[in-house]
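Problem 12. The chain below contains 360 residues. Write out its predicted structure in token notation.
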Amino acid sequence: MSAIPSTVSVEQFASDARAWLEANATYRTGGNEEKEMVWGEGEFSVSVFHSLTFAQEKALLDRMQKWTMLKAERGYHAITWPIEDGGLGLSREHARAYGRIEALFETPQGHETHSVTTRLIAPTINVYGTPEQKKQLVGHFLASRELACQLFSEPGAGSDLASLGCRAVRDGDEWVVNGQKVWSSGAQFSEWGELIARSNIDAPKHKGMTAFMIPMNLPGIEVRPIKQMSGGTSFNEVFFNEVRVPDSHRLGDENNGWNVALTTLMNERASIGGGGSTASNADNPLIVRLIAMVQHFGVNNDPLVRDELAALITGYRVASYNNQRAMDKIKSGQMPGPEMSMAKLAGTANMMRLGDFVSM
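Solution.
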């Protein structure tokens, strides 16, 4: 990775990033200057789930991984992360400056499994992992060299995650895992899985779970894709039959899996609740596209449309502030309180309002 001094100014960093992007990507508008988004150019979708064949979805993920690994050569994939994790150790201002510039370029479409790996599981390992796990996996996942999925939900334990029945029984330096997970997004593409299993049936349900980072190719693991109404197969059932997991793959303390899972879920809710937005409208491609859409259809002066658009922008911005407050707590070693429940509610409300807006 090319060295970027920690004292680099935001302006110089942005200039260098633009030069790198110009050498490795193409402008969305086809020009070499910042221009307003033009409706009809590029992709605009508010769908939640993919409707792709296995091969199409795999190809999409491959493109995203290759782009992230290319960015990792310069540290642009993890600008605020420490240098030892492959990042640059720079400020949020540097990261926001890069995000604004990258939004001007054609880049691969995102995918949930990529986001789970880089935004949810890597930060969780950074909190609960052993020094060896952190060294092996955090930088690896941030650069998406391999992918990871969540192995949380079960047929009888969806919203009530603490009621899970998948068992992990200690056997010396190994654990024997038996049970089933369901709705595991991207499991068929993932080399790793973050597993939460019942390890003490006599303890209160929140106290008797243990977390593991497991290779998905361990003997006894079977992944079965689920056909969705959308036509895709992003979700999966995952079965565990006498799967032996070394204790070195345990994530966090024994019977502390609830806190590990909660940290991952908080990262997820922060990502969903803000819709990927930041404090600035210009930093949020979704808002930019919505503004371009109303301008294209000539309704940008309609008072009802303007009022609803303003409400949408406000909703996403408030959610981003709430999420940033929660993530600041996590980074300082604290556990957020009601912020993440608020984030989930805000994310649902924002998505519903967005769907209504684009179809009005």
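Discussion. Residues 303-331 form the longest helix (29 residues). Students who got a different answer should revisit the alignment rule from Section 12.3.
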